[in-house]
Amino acid sequence: METKNKVAFSVLLALSMSHLLNDLLQSVLTASYPLLKEDLALNFAQIGTITLVYQLAASVFQPVVGLFFDKYPVSWSLTLATTFTMLGIVGLAYAPSMPLILISVFIIGLGSSVLHPEASRITSLASGGKRGLAQSLFQVGGNLGGSLGPLLLALLVAPYGRNRIVVFVLFALFAYIVAHPIGKWFKGYLEQMKVQHVEMKVQNERPLSTGLTLFAIFILMILIFSKYIYMASLTSYYTFYLIERFGVSVQLSQICLFVFLVATAVGTLVGGPVGDRIGRKSVIWISILGTAPFSLLMPHVGLWATVALSFCVGFMLSSAFPAILLYAQELLPYRLGLVSGLFFGFAFGIAGIASAVLGNYADTYGIEMVYKVCAYTPLLGLVAWFLPELKKK
Fold first, then answer.
1. DSSP per residue over 87-153, as a string?
2. pLDDT tens digit string along 141-182?
3. pTM, two decimal places
4. What is the pLDDT of residues 209-263, one digit of tens each?
5. Which residues touch 121 (CB under 8 Å, ≥6 apart)?
6. Which of 96, 250, 265, 329 has the fewest CB neighbours in a 10 Å radius?
């Protein structure tokens, strides 16, 4: 087994693949919205409610899971996460009513609430100090999975009907296989840390005072708020926007969503390593505020310009999250699970609430108005100026 001072690349690649498979399965939910809307005669408000239930399940439990496994780490947590997700996918394929759909998406959300803080913690431990690179590898797996989900659903499910969603159980079975070597490595790591517990305590020094730490977390929460409100408008309603404004087919709208999600994967891969070089604060500042010119222009252009601008938006915004998460982990280096769960959870919660609010707004004012209003949210990136500079080790 690699030591804690050496980058465990095989583990990082397995974690990235695990994240890919998890987010692929999670993205099946949002990608299936047009099918659910048609099959169960849902309105936009009900679509928003589905997203709210999912995001709350995936957010409220994440800090709790992170804190619990900080104190009682186990090697089989990723397997538990996959089990929840697979059960939810089966329910999504066959649930005949809105209440059962909500139960299914809640279970899918539980899978996410277990995987993200746990896999993020193991990623940090396996990084060998190259945390920006490691976190970007982990995050890009999730973004690639999130982009592949809509594409695979368009190819494998959309032409045949909602019940065909059950084919994604095969990806869940593969996720069990991928989780095995991660659990084996983490079990060995935990045994090693029991011997070196004193050395771990020395490494757990905070870079800022308690007051500045809380202030920095508050600023990071505002940045997450600005990022995920706009991301929610794209991930939940982008396909409907394209269908209504440009008259494209469901399949073409899913392909356009795939372009946006691929951009988020590319941006994530860039954000971590660049943050290692120029600093987390600089990446956060540039990525969120730099999204504004593209978001403000997007509601006023044609179809292919919209697709191109959505790529730019996805690239810019997604580069922020690895930097935000790593900045937060460096604030509290002895609570990796709690911090990961808190920020993943807050991001998911904001996205869920925003989706519900935007769904009602779309029913009242139209889907195009959603994008005109949300285009201004990246301007909140200005608050990144207030982030304290962390002491360098």
1. HHHHHHHH--SHHHHHHHHHHHHHHHHHHHHHHHHHHHHTSTT-HHHHHHHHHHHHHHHHHHHHHHH
2. 777 777 777 777 777 776 777 777 888 888 888 888 888 888
3. 0.65
4. 778 888 888 888 888 888 778 877 777 788 888 888 898 887 788 788 888 877 8
5. 66, 69, 70, 336, 337, 340
6. 96
